[in-house]
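I would like you to sit down with the pair of lines that follows and say whether tokens and residues agree.
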Amino acid sequence: MLSHGGQVVVGLSGGADSVCLLIVLLRLGYEVEAVHVNHMIRGAEADRDESFVRRLSEKLGIKLTVIKKDVPKLAKEMHMSEEEAGRYIRYEAFKEKAEYLSRKSASEEGTDGADGAGSVKIAVAHNKNDLAETVIYNMVRGSSLQGLAGIRPVRDRIIRPLLMTKRSDIERYLNEIGQDYITDSTNLETDYSRNKIRHQVLPVLEELNDGAVDHLAAIAMDALQLREDMDNKLSFSDGAEYNPETEDGYVGKIDIDYMNSLDTLTRGELVLRVMESVAGRRKDLTREHVRSVISLSELESGKKIVLPYEMVAERVYGEIRIYKSGKKSNDGASEHFSEMDIGRIETVSYDYTSEIDLSKKEYTKLIDCDKIKSALCLRTPKPGDFIVINAEGGSKKLSRYFTEAKIERSERAYVPVVADGDEVVWIVGHRLSERYKVSPATEKVTEIRYIKEK
């Protein structure tokens, strides 16, 4: 993580983890500077934290930079949660300090800074409990393998020297050397998801097995190794373009033969990376979305599905192309997918219990997950469409259904339907196919939510 005697910026909150990290790095002989960010969220308590780290830095004889940022205000401006905004601001402050020290070091050494631009590391104090909590949090959110890997020990210039050290050992060490620290009151609350895991879920797991934290951390390291193996495979591939910028924006392309040659996990990671390159983020891209994109390889050219962040995935001969709706699909034709006019759908799958009842919700429906044949997509009606209307499998053409429902001919072409391949699953706002309905034998359901574009 660090070369002997190297420079390092420590993110210092004043809590046990960051205080321990600071003292350990100093005792190991590293050249340390600290950065503290006052988020201006907790009023007098935030000022108390700032005063504590100032006294500690003075006592230890290190330089301290204090940054004050109105996180609640910035969170609203950036359309983020306060947690997300706070994290962004902290890491920007750490990065700015590290870059300044790198330039200063390069100047003193008489170099142009090219070799030492990333030489000053940023040390943050995540511990083994944080790693275990992150693994649990990502698992219940339906994360990919990357989420199961949790927190990386090293990422670019950011290092986490205490990542494999338990919180209890950190606190015990500080008590042994007589070093005090502060406790953020929000860490004791159960309002935040991570705090619920910290104070409610992990203690129960440790009752079942006192090695729960160690085992979760070991799983994370195994997942990280798999992730690195996938990185090595994909970094040398020519079977996908992650960020080919066209005049209309980002269009990701995946060669179907190449994709199908990969093992299952690497195939999913490839699809996730391409979706991420188009969307600009990975959050809310789930394995259901990955599965739907991969299923396009089994459909004929021209088939499309709707994805989050206004994305569309389309089978185009030997490729799957992922692009923002309304963009060109690299074949010269301007794409105006029906999502632009009729809205979009969001799907999530979970285990079914009889207590779940969405029957009275007009624009949210449950279907039996195991009955999906290929991939759900939102589109407008096309000739020959039908919907199953009874348990025996009897069907009715949409044209006849529209007539009986007294839907004007001029409006029928714009009625949104959710389809599974060529079969209509749901005439949005009207009828759900009997074939896909939930039954007492259903084990897993897919919830479909229709969102009308404004």
Summary: The two ends are 50 Å apart (CA to CA). The mean pLDDT is 84. The longest helix spans residues 82-109.
